[in-house]
Design a protein that fits this description.
The complex is a heterodimer.
Chain A: H1 7-30, H2 42-54, H3 62-93, H4 95-108, H5 117-124, H6 128-152, H7 156-164, H8 169-206, H9 212-221, H10 225-253
Helix pairs in contact in A: 2-10, 3-4, 3-6, 3-8, 3-9, 5-6, 6-8, 8-9, 8-10, 9-10
Chain B: H1 9-32, H2 44-56, H3 64-95, H4 97-111, H5 119-126, H6 131-154, H7 158-166, H8 171-208, H9 214-223, H10 227-261
Classes of the chains: A mainly alpha, B mainly alpha.
């Protein structure tokens, strides 16, 4: 896949992007096949980008919206991971904990995170707290499930060997369970992060004061397609940057795990 | 992994019941203790009563079932479109190297745009009735269809493809008669992910733009601080989401059984 990508593939990819940009220019600016009401011209998008970056749009400048959204995602994500990974590992390790927690978990799991948004708004209003709650919920489920599966995927021999060598409980967790579960934990974190980002955008579209979702919402109200494109591009950049950051962390924390 | 003592069936049931009991007890206590007003946190039985009430008394024009039906129709349309376009595209990407090289970078870039971020354009292009939500569902459900069909087609045993080529199969025949059947397990696994994301995107889209459907029930309930209405809607969403997944899971195991026999 990507790690086997040859240079020629890279060139084809770059050429495709250029071709799409050219097509965009031809279809909108040059021939007006696509009316500007439906999709903006490249110049309009550049203007919208300048407007939001310099003067600001929807009560904030671009970096304010972007940083605010990223901050909320990271907050919700961090809390969810901090609670979800230990809980999942505990459920994987102890059948008792699993039997105790699993039914409640199964009961809440089918409700998609986005469906919690109205409830969060009723409880906490339109501010940051409601969003962090919903993001927390979105990230929590994949974090628990994959940590659980991660611990269950460890070979029993390893645990037995560690025990017969007289490892203490903390050492067992630190040296065997955690590293053994780590590949699947990271799979869960990647899913969590995507869910967080989607949920945040939805939460901000529904009600927010600043943030990328709020930019999208305002642009939709103002029928301002160029600004919608700017908002979407930065949603993609944010999601992409965070995923890349997580991959970097994954490679750093598991040097033994060949990808 | 074998950890701790293996529990007997009785112990598991007992612990499960305790877990659920604690959950509902905490909820009830929090509601009755008056930490928040009843309107904000109704006890479980008021939510259950509201749920039953919504199934026969219209709320913002329709009963709960009617709202669910209109949501489900949008979901069905968007999901069917995603499968009908995504699976063939994925298979083609797995077979034609040049197509893979051209399309995959674009696809990967677009995938970073969260499905919900399409809502403003969806509303602008197709309105808020049916077309807009369908586009949002499509953008949520589409990537897993493509990715799993692509992956399935890539990891098909090369010998099968070579055998088909030796026998003179054309591209089209290789895709429909070799790659498609061999990728079915991967595709069906993708459908489950895809349906889950599609259903979730539908809820998001309806929260933001629709004027009917289950998401709209939540919005209306939120606007009137009707927590029990919001919770009833969430339960309904959960039930339908669960049912969709159960159906696809049944389909998956049916296919597995058939393949096992064949």
């Amino acid at each position: 896949m990507h790690n086997r990508a040859q240079p020629s593939r890279l060139w084809v990819g770059a050429a495709t992007f250029l071709a799409v940009l050219a097509l965009w220019y031809v279809a909108t600016s040059l021939t007006h096949v696509v009316p500007a009401v439906y999709f903006p011209t490249p110049t309009e998008v550049a203007k919208a980008l300048k407007q939001i970056a310099v003067q600001g749009y929807a009560d904030g400048r671009l970096h304010e919206h972007f940083l605010h959204s990223s901050y909320l995602v990271l907050m919700g994500f961090a809390v969810a991971v901090g609670v979800g990974v230990p809980l999942g590992m505990l459920m994987g390790w102890s059948r008792r904990a699993e039997a105790l927690v699993n039914p409640v978990f199964l009961l809440l799991r089918p409700i998609p995170p986005l469906a919690w948004i109205p409830l969060a708004i009723v409880w906490l209003g339109l501010g940051d707290a409601a969003k962090v709650l919903v993001i927390w919920f979105a990230a929590f489920v994949p974090a628990v499930i994959n940590s659980y599966a991660g611990v269950r995927s460890i070979e029993p021999h390893l645990v037995e060997a560690a025990r017969s060598l007289g490892l203490t409980r903390t050492m067992l967790v630190r040296e065997v369970l955690f590293p053994g579960a780590l590949p699947l934990i990271f799979t869960g974190l990647r899913l969590s992060l995507q869910a967080c980002w989607t949920t945040l955008v939805a939460g901000e579209l529904i009600g927010a004061i600043v943030g990328l979702g709020h930019v999208l919402y305002q642009a939709g109200l103002d029928l301002f397609p160029a600004m919608i494109v700017v908002g979407m591009v930065f949603v993609a950049i944010g999601g992409g940057a965070m995923t890349a950051g997580l991959s970097w962390l994954e490679a750093r924390s598991m040097p033994w795990h060949a990808r | 992994m074998k950890a701790g003592a293996v529990l007997s069936r009785r112990e598991i049931v007992l612990l499960s019941v305790i877990g659920l009991a604690v959950f509902f007890a905490v909820w009830t206590l929090a509601s009755l203790a008056g930490l928040a007003s009843r309107q904000f946190l109704p006890p479980p039985w008021s939510v259950a009563a509201k749920f039953v009430e919504l199934t026969h008394e219209p709320f913002s024009g329709f009963t709960l079932q009617q709202h669910l039906a209109s949501s489900f129709m949008r979901f069905g349309l968007g999901f069917a479109l995603a499968v009908a376009i995504g699976v063939p595209l994925g298979l083609a990407l797995g077979w034609f190297r040049w197509l893979d090289a051209v399309v995959s970078p674009l696809f990967d870039a677009l995938r970073f745009v969260a499905p919900i971020a399409w809502v403003p354009f969806a509303a602008l292009w197709f309105g808020t009735g049916i077309g807009g939500p369908v586009l949002v569902i499509f953008t949520g459900a589409f990537p897993p269809c493509v990715i799993n069909a692509h992956r399935g087609a890539r990891y098909v045993d090369r010998r099968l493809v070579e055998a088909a080529q030796t026998l003179g199969a054309r591209n089209w025949q290789i895709i429909t008669e070799v790659l498609l059947p061999a990728s079915v397990p991967s595709i069906v696994a993708g459908l489950r992910v895809s349906a889950g994301l599609g259903w979730q995107s539908l809820v998001g889209a309806e929260l933001i733009v629709a004027s009917s459907g289950i998401g709209y029930v939540l919005v209306k309930g939120q606007a009137s601080i009707g927590t029990s209405i919001v919770m009833s809607g969430m339960i309904a969403i959960g039930i339908v989401g669960f049912a969709i997944d159960a159906l696809l899971r049944a389909f998956e195991s049916y296919l597995q059984r058939r393949r096992g026999r064949g």
